[in-house]
Amino acid sequence: MSSTNSKLRLIAAFAALATLALAVSCRGFFVNPTLTSIAISPTTPQVAVNTTLTLQVFGTYDDGSRNQVKSGISWSSDTPSVAPIDPNTGIMTGLALGSATITADAEGLSATANATVYLSGITAITITPNTKTLSATSGSPADFTASATANGSQQDITETASWNLTPTTTDVTCTYVAPYEECTADSSAIAQSYTLTASYPGTTIVGTATLTVTNP
Hints:
It is a single chain. The chain has one helix at 2-27, and strands at residues 35-41, 46-48, 52-54, 56-61, 66-69, 73-77, 91-93, 98-106, 109-118, 122-128, 131-135, 142-150, 153-156, 162-166, 172-177, 180-185, 192-199, 206-214. By secondary structure, it is mainly β. It has 3 domains: 1-30; 35-118, Immunoglobulin-like (Sandwich), CATH 2.60.40.1080; 122-214, Immunoglobulins (Immunoglobulin-like, Sandwich).
């Protein structure tokens, strides 16, 4: 009986060794997939002024799989005055209105995303000056700026605001010429008053000013 038990134990031991050897051998055939490309998520990040947003990186591998890359990432912003980003954590801060190109580097690969910093919590929009006279014959423009009151602070939105002039006319045009919204009148413009408005995406609040065109 003891001889039989010994043989069984020996067989079991050889079987265990064979199983272990097979497992080790099989593992040798499996190679970790290689990262072939990366992408930033979200693809077009947006963050409000004075808030933060954490960006992520997802990678595509040579076996067709796609997974989040969680380590070895280096972040940078080409406009840190607008949207700085922590180089290690990917936390982006909305510092000022505008846009910035965010870059992520990982394992020798790079990805970029165009980030936008917007304004939230707007309670008022003001156009300065609120009245202006424009001569159709002088050739001098009438310049305006717009600011928004948001979360207790003032933000210049002249460039990012949507401007509109009523009644509509082709004789008087207003376009952004940094740092102003610049209105000009053709020599044939009719003498009358116009309402200039400035609005901002995401809010129904509108700022107004009066533009009076003269043509002596």
